[in-house]
Amino acid sequence: MRMGKETTVGVFRRAKASEEIAVPGASGEPVTDGLADDHVSDPDVPARGPWDVADVAERGARVDLGALWVPGRDGMELRMEIDQNPRIVTAAAVTLAGSTLQMQVFAAPRSEGIWQDIRSEIAESVTKQGGSVDDLPGPFGRELLARLPVRTAEGRTGHRPARFIGHDGPRWFLRGVLTGKAAVDPEAARALEEIFADIVVIRGSQARAPRDLLALTLPGQAAPPVLAEVPGAPALDPMHRGPEITEIH
């Protein structure tokens, strides 16, 4: 059944409308299975990521997106979401075997994480719009399984599942949204969970307000000069797909 008008879940401060593209020419060879073994050997470093750049020895077989290094997989499609004015890359999304993982990274306080508060805000937003949310344990700690309200082409109201996962790092927060079969099927989610677990975050040393978006870059491009002045994140719409140029690993 084809879905029509869909809900938007506002979690962070709202920015201008964005478009979504996929950019060819991503660097790095695809990793076909398992997690990278290039993290620094340190008993204080966790056994799995997401990683801070200080905890890895090298980029390895990951695509350089500026604030994120994202591991590749065979058959993976990579898309970048771009805010129109100014043209800032606000999110990355990978699609694999019919499921999608959308990723955004934000500044966070030095002293505490923000995922607990963000989960409460997501749950409140979804509930107000007629959806439902369960706060459940997951492979990365607490996560949300949401049923987002959508309007079908026939004018009926339906629901589409989405899993919200998050990780509090040192002065940064990484949020992921799993949609498609991976939102409800643990086996279908495994490959995208491995990608999330092997992401490296490069926060930088700039002073940033908590929840400020860390803008990404297109593969092979330098960080944009506006990076330190990004006012916030766009409203979260994990179901939206804009214009795309598909790159397949």
Oligomer: single chain
Calculate the terminal CA-CA distance, rounded to whole Å.
29 Å
Task: Supply the number of structural domains.
Answer: 1
User: What Rg, in angstroms, do the CA atoms define?
Assistant: 17 Å
Strand residues, percent = 25-35%
DSSP, total strands = 13
Order of helices and strands: EEEEEEEEHEEEEHE
Q: What's the pLDDT, averaged over the residues? A: 78
Shape: globular
Q: Which residue ranges are poorly predicted, with pLDDT under 50 across at least 5 consecutive positions?
A: 1-18, 23-37, 39-43, 224-249
Helical percent range? 10-25%
Largest sheet: 9 strands, antiparallel
Structural class: mainly beta
Count of helix runs:
2
Helix-strand blueprint:
Blueprint: E1 3-6, E2 18-21, E3 51-52, E4 62-64, E5 68-71, E6 77-83, E7 88-96, E8 99-107, H1 115-128, E9 132-138, E10 141-152, E11 157-169, E12 172-179, H2 186-197, E13 200-201
Parallel strand pairs: 3-13
Antiparallel strand pairs: 1-10, 2-6, 4-5, 5-13, 6-7, 7-8, 8-12, 9-10, 10-11, 11-12
Brief sketch in words of this structure:
The protein is mainly beta and 249 residues long. It contains two helices and 13 strands, in the order E-E-E-E-E-E-E-E-H-E-E-E-E-H-E.
Please characterize this protein's 3D structure.
The protein has 249 residues and is mainly beta. Helices cover 10% and strands 34% of the residues. The chain has helices at 115-128, 186-197, and strands at 3-6, 18-21, 51-52, 62-64, 68-71, 77-83, 88-96, 99-107, 132-138, 141-152, 157-169, 172-179, 200-201. A hairpin with a 2-residue loop joins strand 9 (132-138) and strand 10. The longest helix has 14 residues, at 115-128. Mean pLDDT is 78; it is low at 1-18, 23-37, 39-43 and 224-249.
